[in-house]
Every structure is written in structure tokens, then in C-alpha cells.
Amino acid sequence: MADTPDIRERVVERAKRCHAAARFLAYSTTDQRNRALLRAAELLRERTADLLAANAVDMDRGAEKGLSSAMLDRLKLSDKRIEEMAVACEEVAALDDPIGDVLEEWTRPNGLRIQKVRVPLGVVGIIFESRPNVTIDAASLCLKAGNACLLRGGSEAISSNIALAAIMAEACRDAGLPDGTVEILDFTDREAVGVMSRLDEYLSLIVPRGGAGLVRAVSENASVPVLKHERGLTQMYIDETCDLAMAVSLVHNAKVQRPGVCNAVENLFVHEGNVPALQAVVTDLQEAGVEIRGDLRTCELNSGCVCATDEDFDTEYLDLILAVRVVESMDEALDLIARHSSGLTEAIITDNEENAERFLREVDSACVYWNASTRFTDGGQFGFGAEIGISTAKIHARGPMAVRELTIYKYVCRGDGQVRT
């Protein structure tokens, strides 16, 4: 289907502004970009009331549309979440500037001196759903890395996203950076996603951040390189022996603390020799309002469970629902994790160091944990200040994508008259 001319023109107009700004940003100073980030933090705090009012419009619209409680939680802004965004801007400003880093250098036998130097990508397009804090995370990281960004948020958060993007754009102007450094599509036509995905003359990279349907739709139609943030479907394994209180605490945090995010646990596998852990964890989760969808053994050992289907172990619930299965061995657990994994995050709870090291070595995911909550798969928690997404790809970047993952490199070669013979 051909693009609607009006939609295409509006997207291209913003992409062109970003493309023009990116050339300037590549040569901007660290101080300019940091001043823009610190100014954004100031404006976020000054305009908290305005942001909450814009978000209230989105929340009302979301409730009318029947969004789940988990999705509404992802959408909601609060004083605390706005302060966290301001702090994230300050933390990103405090990071080392990656631009200009010499990654490698050497001299050839003919005297040609070669350096591999870190540079910005150019224009990064971010297509995301629901969570308005992504507007700030994405814009701040792109800015720090010397990139312009074109943002397209979900229709459910349009009022919040426009208000947040306006703050970032104002902060950039105040720091002397050009218009187009941060642009947002302020309309909700779905066709705009397809247009963005095909603007390879202006965009260097597309990062789709949302559900599997969004990622697939962007990837299948894009001519711009796509860095995928696939579904979460995070998994945990409780080994035959472990600290019982720790197991309860870790699974509770991974499922209950914020169920609507990609690093919240969705599948739990428990060794058949650790029935006390299984029962303690299930009891704790049920008391917290979690629906347990268990295999036959889980249901026999715990009342109030729903019988799980095969499909349940391939479902990213993003809600207070957990699929639980008893396994005969660690080998079986590893096989199941590999079968159902999206490649994002997995964890083992055990006091057996040999088993833990085997798990960390064999599980092929972007982030793997031993005796820690999966909720740490997050750029801020890794010390990156923020993240633009969590890549499940195996090229260019993997795991939390922060400032360095939004750069590429070029080869700078210096000679004194060398010619090839």
C-alpha cells in the first residue's frame, strides 16, 4: 500500500530536520550536550505539574480504552517518576563522552597511521509504546552520543510524550544546539511507523521498543537497519538447593515489583528436590495477588493454582501471572529455558557454585544472573544512566543499550605521501 502523501510529508519534514541537526551534533562539544541534559533536568522539575496534567489526559483515555492495570502502570507518571527522569538526565550528563574515543591505533609498515575512532550514528529513530519515560531516556542517550533522534510514541501516551519531547527540545535550544536535535511525531497515524522505517536516506538506525507485534511489523518492512528489542519472556530457575528466604525474595521482586516490564519474570522452573522453595515461593506470590499457572506437580503441591498449557510458557504476560513448572534436573531446566527464551534475561537461584557457573556459561541470553533479581536488566541499574532499549540481537549491541551502543566507529588514517603499489 502506498504511503498517504500528507503522512509521508509530515514524517519526512521532521526526519530532514533531524538529519540536518545530526551533522552539527557530530561536531558539538561535550559541554554543549551536557548543558542541554542538565537544563532538561531543571525543566522536568519546574514543569512537573504540567507533565502530570498531560499524563492525566492519557490515563483517562487509557482507562476508557480498557487498558490493563499493568499497562496503566507503565503509562502513569508521578512526582517520583518525573524526578527519576530528571536524575537520569543528570546521570547521563555525568557519563564520559564517548565521541572521539580512540578504540585502537597502529602504524603500517609503510608508515600509514590508522586510528579506529568512536563517532555518532547520525539520526536514530525510536518507535515505542506506552511508557512515556522512554521519551526522556531515548532523547538523553542519543544527545549524549551526538545523535539526533526522531521519536514516535504510542497513541496511548501521546499527550505525555509531546510534553516531554518539548522539554528536551527547549533544553537543546537553550544550550545552543540546533532545532531538529529532538523531534517527535505529534500525530498517531499508524502509517507513520512504516514511513519512518523506510527513510534510510535520513535515518541511520531504527529501535522499535514495544511488543513482539510492533517489533515484527517494523522489522519486516524496514529499509533502515533495525536493532530489535524483542519480547521479554524472562525466566528463572530454582536449583535443588538454595537459600529459601532468598528464593522467595528474588522471585517476588522479579514478578511483583513491576510486572508490566520486559525484565519481570514470566516462567519459573523449580527442581523437584526443592519442594520447600516451590511451596514458599508460590504461597508468597499468591498472597501478593499473582495467578499461578502450574504444571500438574505444581498444582498438586499448591492449592489455588490454574493448570498451565504449553502456550502459557510462551506468553509474556506483563501482568501478575506466572507460569511454573517442576523439573527433574538442571539439564531439563536448561532445555526448557532455551526452548522458551527470547534471549533477554534469565536467572538461577542456587547455593551450588558449580551449577551457577554452568548456568551463566550455557544460557544464551543478553543478561544472565546468579542469585539476583532479573529486574536489574535495565540501563540505569547497570550504571549506564538510562537505556534506549534492551537488545536481543547479536550484532552491534546486546543487552541494555546506552550511550556507547548508540555510536559506531570510523577509521582515521594519516600519512605523509603513501601510495599503494
Features:
7-stranded parallel sheet, Aldehyde Dehydrogenase, Chain A, domain 1, 19% strand, Aldehyde Dehydrogenase, Chain A, domain 2, alpha/beta, 4-stranded parallel sheet, single chain
Report on the architecture of this protein.
A 7-stranded parallel β-sheet has the order 10-9-11-8-7-12-13, with helices on both faces. It has a 4-stranded parallel β-sheet with strand order 5-4-3-6, with helices on both faces. The chain has 2 domains: 5-230 and 392-414, 3-Layer(aba) Sandwich (Aldehyde Dehydrogenase, Chain A, domain 1), CATH 3.40.605; 234-376, Aldehyde Dehydrogenase, Chain A, domain 2. The longest helix has 21 residues, at 5-25. The protein contains 14 helices and 16 strands. By secondary structure, it is of the alpha/beta class. The protein is globular and about 75 Å long. A hairpin with a 5-residue loop joins strand 1 (102-107) and strand 2.
